[in-house]
Amino acid sequence: MAYRTILLELVDDVQNEARILCGRRLAERFDAELVGIHVSLPPFVPVGYGEGAAYVGPEIFEAQREANRLIRERVEATFRRLCDPARMAVRDLYEEGDPGTVIAEAARGADLVLAAQESVSGLDALAPQPIDHVILSAGGPVLMLPRQGLPETIGRRVVVAWNGSREAARALKDALPFLVTADAVMLVAGGEDAARSLDAATALLKRHAAPVQARQLPAGSSAGAMLLEAAAVESADLLVMGAYGHSRLREIVLGGATREVLRRAGLPVLFSC
């Protein structure tokens, strides 16, 4: 398999240019089409207006539309400046709606999604993050790009989390284009189920000619912290893991290890579920 279509979330922040350059490098590496997508929130009535919302004038909505237009112009200009259609397959999409929902729907027509790491400060940290919904609903791998410190290369030294679950197996297989071209792959296992299936997972990667080694993680209270520590020990530039939801709350609540890695990771992380 290969990544032939890469969907890149375009966000108007200080890291936008770095993420675009990262997406461009990956598209060139995998000979893929790069599709940039920016989603604007629809105009809304500020909560503070309360019962007076019915009397809010149209200027409130027009101001929001104008702000969205200016943001789109900035994002579009940066994307088109950095991605030359004469040199690579590239296109960009601009939509209005809920970012998580719109990006997840677009992701179903892509092989890989590049999404921004969630906010951890300010009001944004209290709201549902687009990446949460994208991971759970994209139907394929989502590569989270960290808030800062994006590496020049991604996927040369890879740590793969293994616990024997369906989600872990899906993540391992979804990451194969990275794993078979990596310089080193460390399969790290935690739990009894992982120990029983670790040899089979290692053999699977070896049959794909991935340069894999395996080791068992010590028992610990925080799987997320152990995975991030293992990535640091291996000097990894990519962590691969399954994303876990909790049964009937799957659509709104991600598992503890997933949540910790989403918030704390300082390296790119490929999630599948």
UniProtKB/TrEMBL annotation:
What residues does the UspA domain cover? 191-270
Q: Which domain of life is it from?
A: Bacteria
Family the entry assigns = Belongs to the universal stress protein A family.
The protein here is known as: Universal stress protein
